[in-house]
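Quick check before the chapter quiz. The format below is the same one you will see on the exam, so make sure you can read both the input and the output lines.
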Amino acid sequence: MSNELKRLNDPLEIQDYILQSKSGFADFSLGFLFMWQQSYEFFYTVVEDTLVLGGGYDDAPFAYFYPIGKNEEAALAFIEKDSANRKGLRFACLDDATAAKLCNRFENVCVTSDRRWSDYIYAAEDMKTFRGKKFAGQRNHINKFLKTFGSYEFHEITPENVQNVLAFLREFGEGRDFSASAKKEYENCFRLIKNMFAYRCFGGFIGTGGKIVAIAVGERVGDTVIEHIEKGLPGYPGAYQVMLSEFAKHFATDGVKFINREDDSGDEGLRTSKMQYHPILIKNKNYLIVNCLFKKIRPPVILVGEGVVLSDLTAEDKQAFYELYTDEENNAYWGYDYREDLGESPPTPDYFFGFQQSLKEKCEEYSLAVRKDGRLVGEAVFHGFDYHGGVELGIRVARAEQGKGYATAALKTMISYAKNVLGATAVKAKCFKQNAPSKAALTAAGFKKAGEDETYYYFRA
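Here is the expected output.
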């Protein structure tokens, strides 16, 4: 497969990888991905037999899941590169172990979790029997159900009776005033039940007096059964407890240790109910944002060097900046030709000023004016930010101001700022092999040669 993310149209495209997941989260299951496909927008690729999956919910920023497969390192390297197209690097739905791995991998991260989306994990055996003092309430509900309705029958959902289950679901929704999120979940229940057998799901229902009063639908991933749907009619107290017990007895078998009853979406009533079943773990879904050093730059920036001052570009610099950008002879070794973006349109001072501001907004590049006695005599650029504490420096000086030591002075100031203020662990630079003055300035500023290829010399400070 080409290493480009493509839209996930059908979770079955990645089922071999999803079934390898050991996270225990509901999100890593075919039924969940299918059920919420119209709310989420997922994209994926496979890198060295490892799944890279990412997406966003509604208007949430794009975030990656932790890779699943044989070569996590290759997949993470791909993600770092791909994130340049995603306005930042974020990971979602991380368990504590994978969040710790990423904290160790990256220099500057922020980890949060939202209690609303934490999954409730229960011991499968507890849900089968409700044995012990702490489950006395559940047993009482079951006894009340039996006393009120006499008996019940459990049936597995099959293609032959699935229409009856859908009829129950319609009855369940009649007259209810759903919140927006609950309405979406309710509609998605129909979507999953109609297609449950194609997505490795199973389920059952409780009937009494010839009427379906509760249903449950889920699937197995590893040693966990994930319960996607659990519904009961309000006029049948105890039906939920009976349904969960029977669901566990019939489907949490052959090595299943846990039942994941998914999150509470912040609903206080649902949270209270799920807590009453005594989860053995409330499994947080960690959200991790990886910040590059760009995020540590705090404007206005004023850096004082030996005979030069580096500071933010202002509107008053537009004309001098335009002249610096359009000096083709001076920019032969700059590595960027503005016409690649501008095309046949004529360049203007406003264009170049706006272009640099847009790079700042995208956290790609931070440009400073190199000033002598207040005049703009060059440009100093922090760019090439990575997620491991690295940054690359660039410098150019107007032809009329060259040979006066401004480039070396500016580079020394930039190195000091990168290391001592931003906390950079790798300060890098490069120059074209033909550009002897640039090589001399880098060396004079304290850079050491770190390698070369056909085009560039590479340096580290």
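If your answer matched, good. The CA atoms of residues 7 and 43 lie 4 Å apart.
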